[in-house]
User: Fold this.
Amino acid sequence: MVISLTQSLGPIFGSRVVTPGLGFLYAATLGGYLGPFQPGQRAASHISPMILTNNNEAFMGIGAAGGAKINSAIVQAISRIIDRNLSLPEALAAPRVHPTKDGILIEVPDSTSWSTKDFQFLRDNGFVLEQQKEPFRFGRVHVVMKKGGNWLGAADPDGEGAAAGPKEAN
Assistant:
């Protein structure tokens, strides 16, 4: 059995208030990251916890925090794990890109992630680039994955938290 969940209730699991009998926490924020909305409208959300299967067997649970960048962060992590066969830590540590209205936002966590040649290639192909050097801006992905009969877990190094496979009973 695999469960993938995320929460966008605000810091530290929201308000920490539960109405007896309902069993859920109330949000502590509707934060500016949700964009403008009017009374009666539903707040936009990018929450995307996923379970991936192969031959009807669950092999990955993945999710992220990060507002509008959640979807691009998850897609890039999945592609790096499946298409490029990177380990979970490698896939989550690799710098990301995110489409913007005017071009591409590029995560630049250090001086070795992207070369001058990389930036020039993108510019030569018509992309307007914006570099983002601040941490916690590109979705903080957590993933568990079944590999070789074992469940492995990893958490994005660009955030807090942890992910792990099931623990053996004592």
About this structure: The longest strand covers residues 57-65. Helices lie at 70-82, 88-93, 116-124.
